[in-house]
Design a protein that fits this description.
heterodimer, A: 108 residues, mainly beta, Immunoglobulin-like, 11 strands, B: 113 residues, four-stranded antiparallel β-sheet
Chain lengths: 108, 113
């Protein structure tokens, strides 16, 4: 099956810093989503981005489907950005395959 | 904004007991899913459901698991005889069409003692 790798596995930032999270996938995909898992365990949709670039406030994402990677940018990080960021891809049948996540800690 | 809801938020059960986890997908959605996440691990697909039948299931989804859409709004996951290793967060998700965002519910944390 398709493999999804996320990097870095852990990231510690000072409040106000910027960061880039990466997601590599091993085959072509129909769908790619980024999620933020908050401290209560909820999965919050950030982006549906099978290709191209999208922005939502301090967050933006870019997927280069031909090169099989996606990037999530977080600018001016805040402590509330802390949590786990998951990339998930869908290749067929609509089931999402998740990466292992990036654990982000933002310090004040 | 419409959302997927799940009940209960937390369920504690004894090993060997049956549990039913409930989900109300977004009202005009057609495809429904269950995923689970063991503590500290990645989210894993369990089963997809469309047109009142299972579309696909993973190897995790064995004979102890079943899904049902008993009416026009609810979507349930039943575990017949729970094991300790079934302890996990279970997420329900739904999607309106094939090329669309999959929306996740807040999850049910299942603890098997």
């Amino acid at each position: 099956g398709i493999q999804v790798e996320q990097s870095p596995p852990d990231l510690i930032l000072q409040e106000g810093a910027n960061s880039t999270l990466r997601c590599n996938f091993s085959d072509s995909v129909n769908n790619l989503q980024w999620f933020h898992q908050n401290p209560w365990g909820q999965l919050i949709n950030l982006f549906y981005i099978p290709s191209g670039t999208k922005q939502n406030g301090r967050l933006s994402a870019t997927t280069v489907a031909t090169e099989r990677y996606s990037l999530l940018y977080i600018s001016s990080s805040q402590t509330t950005d802390s949590g786990v960021y998951f990339c998930a891809v869908e290749r067929g049948g609509n089931k999402l395959v998740f990466g292992a996540g990036t654990i982000l800690r933002v310090k004040s | 904004e419409p959302e997927v809801t799940q009940t209960p938020s937390h369920q504690v059960t004894q090993m060997g007991q049956e549990v039913i986890l409930r989900c109300v997908p977004i009202s005009n959605h057609l495809y429904f899913y269950w995923y689970r996440q063991i503590l500290g691990q990645k989210v894993e697909f369990l089963v997809s459901f469309y047109n009142n039948e299972i579309s696909e299931k993973s190897e995790i989804f064995d004979d102890q698991f079943s899904v049902e859409r008993p009416d026009g709004s609810n979507f349930t996951l039943k575990i017949r005889s729970t094991k300790l290793e079934d302890s996990a967060m279970y997420f329900c998700a739904s999607i309106g069409g094939r090329q669309d965002t999959q929306y996740f519910g807040p999850g049910t944390r299942l603890t098997v003692l």
